[in-house]
Design goal:
Blueprint (H helix, E strand, L loop, with lengths): L6 E9 L17 H12 L3 E5 H7 L8 H9 L7 E5 L10 H4 L5 E5 L5 H9 L2 E5 L7 H10 L4 E4 L3 H9 L5 E7 L25 E8 L5 E7 L5
Parallel strand pairs: 1-6, 1-7, 2-3, 2-6, 3-4, 4-5
Antiparallel strand pairs: 7-9, 8-9
The structure holds NADP nicotinamide-adenine-dinucleotide phosphate (NAP).
Length: 232
């Protein structure tokens, strides 16, 4: 029997050649202003926003709802102004003054492993983070999602990067994929893509059912997919 988990929406912005960033991996801008409005609305509709360890440590995003109107609408529904921020990070060596920890108001949750020292854990907790140990070398994603459900989260949004997305897809732990495809080409064999890590065989390929398609005036395309559960 599979234990309950939240509904998981993966959202990413990628170039027409499938890149999530340039080879520099410094968080190159891909989303247009219109796309940021779309992302902001998705964030406001989520209980939590989840990112992988590399994105957390290298990009240190704020992960807040930018629109005051959307934040107030959440508050009017009795929800916290911002969804919780969740980091999946094997070695949580982020600085207490990092944007992930300091920008708010928002609940901050870190799933990590014993690779994070007790001293660092105390430092993170003093900075207001909840730190949970799940897994040995890497975070146990099934356990982390189950725990988020126990915490009352019912709808979560994953904002990358490609290694975390690949693992969630491989484990069948995601329900929908929303993609903004920008009219851009970054190139580069080593540039991060939507689903990195080891890759799948043709038989293991994740199958998608298109739910919708929007053409943006900026030349971008938004595709929404349902992720078909593997019967294997
Ligand atoms: N365009 C977009 O929408 C978008 C969004 C987000 C990020 N990005 C870009 O993506 C790049 C970062 O992506 P990334 O693939 O390098 O890293 P990532 O997916 O952000 O993080 C992956 C890291 O998370 C840790 N982790 C812990 N438990 C894990 C598990 N069970 N499964 C997978 N990862 C686990 C691992 O760290 P250890 O190896 O230390 O164990 C792993 O290397 C950056 O260039 C960033 O700018 C783009």
């Amino acid at each position: 029997m599979t234990l309950p988990r939240p509904f998981v929406l993966i959202n990413a912005a990628m170039t027409a050649d499938g890149k999530l960033d340039t080879v520099a991996r410094r968080g190159a801008q891909i989303s247009s202003e219109d796309d940021w409005q779309r992302v902001d609305a998705l964030r406001a509709a989520s209980d939590a926003i989840i990112i992988g360890g590399r994105t957390l440590l290298d990009e240190d995003p704020r992960l807040l709802v930018k629109s005051a109107e959307r934040r107030n609408a959440r508050a009017a529904r009795g929800l916290p102004k911002n969804p919780a921020k969740v980091g999946i990070v094997s070695l949580a060596d982020l600085r207490p003054e990092s944007r992930f920890l300091s920008a708010g108001p928002a609940r901050r949750i870190l799933y990590t492993t014993p690779r994070t020292s007790i001293t660092q854990t105390r430092r993170l907790e003093e900075a207001g983070a909840e730190v949970y140990f799940m897994g040995s070398e890497r975070v146990d994603l099934t356990a982390a999602l189950r725990h988020l459900h126990e915490l009352g989260f019912r709808r979560v949004m994953v904002e990358g990067g490609g290694t975390l997305i690949a693992e969630l897809l491989r484990l069948g732990l995601a329900d929908e994929l929303h993609l903004y495809i920008a009219p851009l080409i970054f190139g580069g064999a080593d540039a991060p893509t939507l689903a990195d890590a080891g890759g799948m065989s043709r038989d293991e390929a994740v199958r998608l059912k298109r739910l919708g398609l929007d053409l943006f005036d900026d030349g971008g395309i938004v595709v929404r997919y349902e992720i078909i559960k593997s019967t294997k």
